[in-house]
């Protein structure tokens, strides 16, 4: 799946483990060292003990800065669960008559975080807008998974400077995964001093306090926790839709694939308690939601940190009993996909038949360099086990081409794996180094023209298989959850099958948010055209 096709399925810009990137990433050649030169900065302390940095004519309140070395350390400290989130008294009602805008880049986890931030802001009285001119608070919820994603954000930061000059009272904030990077925070402090607030992925619940400091103090406020925080329940949330919902079940990742920055931006693995997840899903069912997606950077590692012998298979088995039509999860790591999970998924019902299992490469030497800690043979054995247990499932994956030292022969192994696995689709990417990751120390020795050629040849294979797999559905009757109007034609409705295939058809607008049956008349490479037959009665 190339960049244009991916944009149709994902938010603005899902790691192998939740990632979102363009297949046309350019070679990273940025010199980050210049963003660590603060020789002209002065540190001051006020009467309350707060530390300020004076640089470029502006004061910067630094509660905590990102520290990559600190973020690398993984302790076994107990993670506490907090149920006492509340808006501070001084911030209650501060947003009445004011508007906020959040621009979200990246994966489903970022979308979920944006829902929490929107909920908090609305509890403070703010109203959402999509007009930058109307907004009083603008947050950029950022993605760090690829250089292109970062470039988009810095482009937007630059565009907002003139708006800040016109409207000095406007609060501009940068949050999300980019905020967890030292070089990014330092670059903003030195070059983009119109930004008012920087906070990270671990302290979203602190946003009201930080916003108060930014509004009252008129200085840039930075609070980015490098060590992951506790699990904070009961934060308000403004969900993006009324039909489908994201439910986070865990945070962070402990896999440390050599190319991936997620373990540093999202921290170590921390699982929510089963009872809290189950209660949230039951509440969504009562509200009439038709589909939930369980989220985690490495979702099938769920529960390992709880030390209670309860994993994703146990959770899925419990959710299987809830009266909600569809349950999905993303994204999996092959090392954690166990036999019990496969057994539970084979029960069907509201557990849908779609497995996204990133492989990244079909060559064992490249997989070893990537730190994936499985072999092609192990992956194929696991995939075939899943396909045997769930024979009608669609199967998708992630692939990176042009990893350091990848030879043409090794790339051919990836092509052969694509054909062997017969994937319904794949998200395909060109490798780009991320600052401070182990792979960033490797020589990026695959030329860009070779990377682009490999991506092109890979996509040709992916497209051919996807078109053939879709062709097999012509004449079939499928169950479709109607998501809304087609982006290309308001007279056409669009939705997804249980196997996550996109179906376009004509029907009454009253079908939006409901499950219908449709007969597939025409198969395209990335979508299906059909005709609606009837509304489905789904009984779990």
From TrEMBL:
Listed GO CC annotations: cytosol
Alphabetical list of Gene3D superfamilies matching this protein: Methylthiotransferase, N-terminal domain, tm_1862 like domain
Cofactor note: Binds 2 [4Fe-4S] clusters. One cluster is coordinated with 3 cysteines and an exchangeable S-adenosyl-L-methionine.
Superkingdom of the organism of origin: Bacteria
Keyword hit for Metal-binding: yes
Main location: cytoplasm
Composition bias, Basic and acidic residues: 1-10
Quaternary context: Monomer.
Family statement drawn from the similarity comment of this UniProt entry: Belongs to the methylthiotransferase family. MiaB subfamily.
Name of the protein: tRNA-2-methylthio-N(6)-dimethylallyladenosine synthase
Organism from which the protein derives: Salibacterium salarium
